[in-house]
Amino acid sequence: MDSLNFEGWCPIRIYPQENGLAVDWLKLGDAVLRAPFFKEDIDRLMALPFHQAFRRQSTLDQLLAWVQSSPGLPPSGFVFHVSRCGSTLVAQALAALRGAIVLSEPPLLDTLLQARSWPGQTATRQRSALRALLSAMGQPYGRAQGPLRTRQWVKLDAWHVFEAPQIQHAWPDAPWVFVYRNPVEVLASQMRQRGVFLIPGAVEANPSGLPLEAALRMPVAEYCARTLGRIYQSMVEQYRPGTLLVNYESLPHALLDSVLPHLGWHPDAEDRDAIQALSLRSAKRPTEDFVPDAQHKREQAGETLQALAETWIQPHFAQLEAWRLGGTQAGPATQPSEEFSA
Q1: I need a surface site. Which of 72, 111, 147, 221 has the fewest CB within 10 A?
Q2: β-pairing, 56-59 with 151-155?
Q3: All domains in the chain, ordered by first residue
């Protein structure tokens, strides 16, 4: 184990085996991940014959040992979000910066965050594994002659706001950004094409908090509204002093004015030009122009979606807005509602 060297390799998958957790690695070298989502970059690379022929596997203990000898960059900040709210634009803006490593919703991070019930996974070991994973993914160099990387930022999945205590415990000094949007617009977007986390049973985290049988019987629109409401509510509950609140309506201007400085980066003229160019393109489909759609989403929502958003999401959205617009650093002002405590 001591002789293993993963220089230039990046973990891409973690999964359980009989003798513990296994880690798959990909030869990343000095390549930089720039796609809107981590999985897109890995799928593209895995389609190449070299990566199909040459992969490595290790145990979790070998991952832990590797980062002891070659520690990577700690996270420079985390982006939490409610989905369909501009968080991908935030991640793409960060990825455009020189020397940046941006991990946009890496599935293997979710695997570790949900691994509490796996054999041998104590809270301490899970925390060590989380730190080791991001350390291995945040190596400051690719190949020995590769470009120096100085920052690593992580955009989480929407349901990871439930894991905020774990993330704070593992990286207590990393700043947070909470990105959110008018609830009707988010709900309308999800009803047009649901994210996987809004399909009952599709992700291990169960973001709805409902028993699977009850979720499957529930009308789709209500299930989506209740699940999104729970994510907004958790964002309110996990808000801490110093968290930057970003409403979709403030983008893209907030990128330069507040997001980058909050995450420790002070943009120069080159950064500003790169981000200005990004703001003209679709964040999820960079080959297409960005087309504002907020008004259209509100109009297409209809009375049913508007009522569901008002019931399940609006109170939590209003609290976030009150903090953002009031500039207060007060802590959470609400308690879990009866609907979500069942």
Answers
A1: 147
A2: unpaired
A3: 1-70+103-138 (no CATH), 75-99+150-332 (3.40.50.300)
